[in-house]
Structures are given as C-alpha cells and as structure tokens.
Design goal:
mainly alpha; 2 domains; 9 helices; HNH_nuc; about 280 residues; 2 strands; HNH endonuclease; elongated
Length: about 280
C-alpha cells in the first residue's frame, strides 16, 4: 500500500504547537522563514514505509501519518535523529512531548488556506481524470484509448517518460535505416522495369534525392534533441526529489534515486555536447 500523506488538520496541529521552532532540544531554527517558506521537515517517529528508521511492522498507515507519530525538525536534526540507537521511538516521543509543552499556549498558526484549497482541488482533479479516462473517453469501447492513470506515482510517470524517449529513439532509428535503403530499393524497382540504374550514375550525390536522404536530421537533429530531452528529464527528477525529500527523508527509494540521478545530471553537466 502506498504511504499516506499527513492530513491537513494534523499538520495544522503540529505547527500550532511548534512555536515555529525545530522540536530538537535547544534548537531555535524556525520552521517558516521570513518569506513564509517552509524550511524544515515533517518527520515520522516510526517510519512511514518499510526500510525506514524505527519502522513498526505491527503499525498501520493511519497511525504512521497521525499527529502522535509526527514531529517537525530542521534538516540537520532530522538527519541526526536517523540514528536509531541514539534516538529510539521512546526518546523521540519524549522530545516531541517536551517541546510541545513549551508552546501549549502558543498562537503560532500555519497559513494553510492555499494548501487546503490545493489539496481539495487536486483530489477532485485526479478523480475527474480517472473518470474521464476510464469511463468517458471518446474511444472507451475501442480498446485504443491511451491510459492516463491519476494514481501513478512520480516514479511511475518519470519511468514512463524515459521509456517513451527510448521508443522515440527506436522509431527514428527505423526511419534512418529506411532512408539508408531507399537508394537500393529504388534501383531494385528500376531493374524490375528493365531500366538500368546506371542512367542516374552521372547525377552528383548531393543532387540525388535518394542519396543520404535526411542525413542531417538523422545524424545531427535526432541525437541532439534526444540528448536534450534526457538532460531535461534528469533535471526534473533532481528538482522534484530535492523538494520531496525535505518532508519525506525516510523514503529510502527516493533517497537512492536522488543520489543516482544527481550523478547522472553531473555527468551531463560535464560531458554533454551537441553533435555537429
């Protein structure tokens, strides 16, 4: 089952009792900066998914995203508390309890109006996408409708995009091979009509429409545009995972993918060049 995001009312309660400070003892790092940007991390005491720190296989998804299982830390202290030997469940619960006692009467409020509105609108949107694609598609009964799955994760979508790039590359390669064989195919057609291909041998290659057909498109345009697309997809992955891991740093799959794609983008930044 996919991990569940914390509910809006849970986040509201967390921030209301945070004093706009990291919950780690003695830390006064703000959670919301002067530009009203969230610069901390919502952390799970018992990990949200298997493989994470302090994961409890006996727990359930609702508890994992509950108020009782969450606290808000600055990034350095979130990393520090990943040490499960020094920070078992009991110690983090104590840290959470002690911190919230300091701010029981705090009037700090998170302005989550836009977040609430966006969450509601996107929930409606994805439900509508699912209905349109599965039920109301104009070619629903033909078996030809292309799938648009609103439940797909970021990882599913980005993998599909890379697969599409590979598909486009294969298609363009087939066009390249077809154009390369065009001259031979044409000469074979002439012979079937008892016309000697030698009639055209005095035509310079650069004036022969069957010689090196679409050479620049195949050998320059195609590799350059495909490389550009791969770089941009890697860039999108890094940008997305950078933000995602600020609030989901226990997601081991995302961590591993983040490190992998960062290296890919660095390699592109160092070596990628236009074919010319």
């Amino acid at each position: 089952m996919a991990r569940l995001a914390p509910k809006t009312d849970v986040l509201r309660a967390l921030f209301a009792r945070s004093g706009n400070q990291c919950a780690f003892p003695g830390c006064t790092q703000p959670l919301i900066n002067g530009k009203n940007k969230f610069v901390a991390q919502v952390c799970h005491i018992e990990a949200a998914s298997e493989g994470g720190e302090r994961y409890n296989p006996e727990g359930n998804d609702e508890h994992r995203r509950s108020y009782e299982n969450l606290l808000v830390l600055c990034y350095p202290h979130h990393i520090e508390t990943d040490d499960v030997d020094d920070y078992p469940v009991e110690r983090l619960l104590e840290i959470k309890r002690d911190h919230e006692q300091l701010f029981l009467k705090s009037d700090f409020k998170l302005d989550e109006a836009e977040l609430t509105k966006l969450s509601y609108e996107m929930e409606k949107y994805w439900s509508e996408v699912e209905r349109l694609n599965k039920l109301d598609h104009v070619f629903a009964d033909s078996g030809l409708a292309m799938d648009v799955n609103g439940d797909s994760s970021f990882f599913d979508v980005i993998e599909s995009a890379y697969d599409a790039v590979g598909g486009i590359e294969n298609l363009l390669e087939s066009f390249h091979k077809s154009d390369e064989s065009l001259k031979i195919d044409f000469e074979g057609l002439l012979l079937r009509k008892d016309i000697s291909p030698e009639l055209f041998h005095d035509v310079p290659y650069y004036e022969n429409p069957f010689e090196n057909r679409n050479w620049e498109s195949h050998n320059l345009g195609t590799p350059n545009w495909l490389q550009r697309l791969r770089i941009d997809l890697a860039h999108i992955e890094v940008k997305y995972l950078e933000e995602y891991l600020k609030t989901h740093s226990e997601d081991l799959r995302a961590k591993a993918k983040f490190e992998e794609v960062k290296e890919v983008l660095q390699e592109y930044a160092t070596t990628a060049m236009h074919v010319d």
